[in-house]
Amino acid sequence: MLCLAVAALFVLAWPAPGPTTVDNDLTTFLHDLPDLWDPLWQIGFAAVALWPILLMLIALASRGRRSLLLDWLIAAALAAALSLGIGALSGTPISESLQSLASTGPPQVYVAVRLALATAVVATASPHLSRPLRRIGRGVLLLGAVSAIALDVTFALGAAAGFLVGLAAAAGAHLLLGSPGGQLSTSQVTDALTELGLTVSDVHPAPVRTPGVVLMTAKDADGSSLLVKVFGRDAWDSQFLASLWLAAARRGERVRLGRSRRGQLEHEAVATLVAQRAGVPVLPEVAVGSTADGDAVLVTRLDGHRFAALNADEITDEHLESAWRAVLDLHAAGLSHGRIDGDRVLAAAGGRILLADLAEADLAPSPTDIATDRARLLVMTAARTGRERAVTAAVKGLGPDDLAAVLPYLQAAVLDRATRKAVAKGDDSLKRLRAAAADAAGVQPPPLQKLRRVTPKSVIITVGGTLLALYLITKLAGVDFSAIAAELAAANWWWIAGALLLSPFVQAAYAVGTMGASIKPLRYGPVVMLQWAIQFIAVALPATAARLALDVRFFERFGLAAAGALAIGVIDSTSGLVVQVLLIALIALTALPGLTSPVPDASSTSGTTSTGPSMLMIVLVLAGALVVAAAVCWLIPATRKRIKTIIPKARATIAVQRASAQESLQVLRRPRNLTEMLTGNLAAQLIQAAILGLCLQAFGAEAHFSQLVLVNTLVSLFAGLMPVPGGVGVAEAGYTACLQAIGIPSAIAISTAITFRLVTFYLPPLWGSVSMAWLRRHQYV
Predict the structure, then answer these.
(1) Angle CA(153)–CA(157)–CA(161) in degrees, nearest 5?
(2) 562 in Cβ contact with 552 (< 8 Å)
(3) Position 338 pLDDT exceeds 60
(4) pTM exceeding 0.70
(5) Following CA atoms 548, 554, 556, 561 in sequence, which dihedral angle do they give, to the nearest 10 degrees?
(6) At what angle do helices 524-540 and 544-556 cross, to 10 degrees?
(7) Stretch 10-37: mean pLDDT, rounded?
(8) Virtual torsion, Cα 591, 592, 596, 600, nearest 10 deg
(9) What b/e sequence results for 371-405 when a residue is b if at least 16 CB atoms lie within 10 Å of its CB, and e otherwise?
């Protein structure tokens, strides 16, 4: 479905955005109908929005169905992104596409966004609904498409594109998260086993779920327990997508094109047979074969209980020793398991251990595969039995040398989701487990093996850099660079010289705030030199660690410990953040001009007057968006559990940091120190705003001082959140956008942003290097 929808969208791209002859003929036909049809069009177009909302409310009110909301939200997000992107590429502005969501009239857009979102939700929900509800949903979509055309919201071409975008988004969500369409019922599994010549009873879904695979338990004619694994039509999709994700996220992994259902069955059967012949305790095979529908079936005899379902007192030391013996025998046979966790290690009577599910077994494992298996077993046993018992069993099974080789792999990147949750809920963290295993092996904890290609930081940098690049491209695409060159050439350099002379006073003001954040008395001169030296460090060594090292070394000269020095930086930064937030709130909640107010004489400079919403309205909308986002996160059980887990950890971390820097935190109880902190940071913000005003004056433009303060504060906050050293590129784009928002022409806005950053960031390292040399000469660093 995904491939067909994408192919059809490529075909529609040729005549897009329309209208074509068919579009005009159909629109004319609908307009020629009697006016009594008009209420039906209004109802039909409203139903397109109401039906998906009704489905979500039903799922929210149904126990066991709330997890479907995540599927539908992902599908809707994919549909929205595709609709806006395809529409923009076809010539429909994004603003018009967004307006069409609530509009019941022209302009006609390509793609029909409301129809795309509704189709995505309905198609994603379809496998979970009864036949009458599915038919109602399809009828609503059909009526909504005709209504959108009749109301001039879109053409027939845009309605067709909306359908295809919704189907593509639903198919993508099903590929990512699975679909009931690939799941077999108990009666179907019973029929499949009958085809293989097995007589079974009491067929039930297994407590373990594997994407793309149906797992069920059954009883054979003798009453023995069986584990039935059926590779259905989702098996290839799931394996391919899982392989693609692992190859992208983890080093050493490679993309596998995936095996067919029969290929996956044969691989697991062969791996199980090889392990069984080598004496590895695995689940013995009962039957292997394919059904008339093409489903591949593997039946094994089930014995024992899952480790994940046992309490610590139910797991004996014999179980732990047997588990290590089983995994080492598997490795000695030339196999790696690939999925060691609490669901695939079974504890049987007499202290025996059985390994289940060799679907991901590698017949030619690398040293990383073997070390990963052992690390997973160690973490899994520690999560179930405690750190001491798990480490003791690992030392007995592996020996000190082999255990030391496993230490770099004791990290979250090698663990499955269930094991990570089990570790997070328990008292043993991976760090403590790594330390205990290192002590048992008689070595120092080594650095972790670099396994992850994708980290939250890399995602933020990639997404932020991409958005910044897209923004700059769109902003600079229509800019006359000759006009920018002319503005720079015609600038009044006396104003720029004044801005440059005022620039050092920014750090002089910050020095007052730093003195207020210190519990120890500091001399003003060296602190100012420190602030200027930080300007040099920010460009020469754009890394937080370098600046922290400089701060710690400086404050140690005044008798402060490292924890206290770090606390001073945190307190100072927090006070600066408080000042910035208060400035934004002051401008938003008063009549002072803000981003939505035109600059003085804006008509003579930009030719337009802003008629946008007030700053207060923007703040209220942002606050409402945060509340809605928090409510959605709280409604999703997995996210809610994660938040409940994070909060105690954050409290514990804060308590530890507070205890280590208790002396430095005493400044928060001293009015004089608080006044110095707030005054210094406030003065720095106001001086920066004044410098921005001088740079703006150099190009013949001006703005209200409150606007300059707001622009500087917003950009400082935004650039500080982006993980880009010094905010290079980010700050320039931010100043350009904010200056344009208050009515400054593009050429002047870009010229002012470049000049301001030159004066406040790129030139201060000149005297910052002199300050650094002075600090070294006087042994302050």
Answers:
(1) 90
(2) yes
(3) yes
(4) no
(5) -30
(6) 160
(7) 82
(8) 120
(9) bbbbbbbbbbbbbbbbbebbbbbbbebbeeebbbb
Give which of 209, 437, 207 is closest to 217, Cα–Cα: 207
Contacts of 733 (CB under 8 A, 6+ apart): 468, 471, 472, 475, 753
Token pair in block for residue 506: 């920014």
CB-neighbour burial class of residue 225 (10 A; exposed 0-12, middle 13-18, buried 19+) = middle
pLDDT, tens digit, 9 for 90 and up, residues 114-163: 888 999 888 888 877 777 778 888 888 898 888 888 888 888 888 888 89
Domain 310-441 is of which CATH architecture? Answer: Orthogonal Bundle (1.10)
Dihedral angle over CA of 631, 634, 638, 642, nearest 10: 120
* Residue ranges of domains in the chain: 2-177, 182-301, 310-441, 457-606+661-776
| Alpha carbon distance, N-terminus to C-terminus of the chain | 65
Which structure tokens are listed for 315? 């797991």
Are 121 and 72 within 8 A, CB to CB? yes
**CATH fold group of domain 182-301:** Phosphorylase Kinase; domain 1 (3.30.200)
Quote the Cα angle for 168-254-330, to 5°. Answer: 120
- Residues facing 216 on adjacent strands: 205, 228
- Do 368 and 252 touch, CB atoms closer than 8 A? yes
User: Between 481-489 and 746-757, two packed helices, what is the crossing angle to 10 degrees?
Assistant: 60
Residue 18 confidence (pLDDT): 74
CA-nearest of 276, 365, 383 to 320 is 383
pLDDT of residue 607: 39
In terms of Cα–Cα distance, which of 280, 438, 414 is closest to 339? 414
pLDDT score of 603 more than 50 = no
Residue 429, CA atoms < 13 Å, CB-side half-sphere: 4
Contacts of 681 (CB under 8 A, 6+ apart): 509, 510, 513, 572, 575, 576, 578, 579
Contact 382, 390 (CB under 8 A): yes
Q: In sequence order, which residues have a C-beta less than 8 Å from that of residue 388 and are 6 or more positions away? A: 436
Quote helix, strand, coil % in the chain, to nearest 5. Answer: 65, 5, 25
404-408: list long-range contacts, CB under 8 Å, 24+ apart.
404/438, 404/441, 404/442, 404/443, 404/446, 405/371, 406/371, 406/374, 406/375, 406/378, 406/437, 407/434, 407/437, 407/438, 407/441, 407/443, 407/445, 407/446, 408/371, 408/446, 408/447, 408/448, 408/449
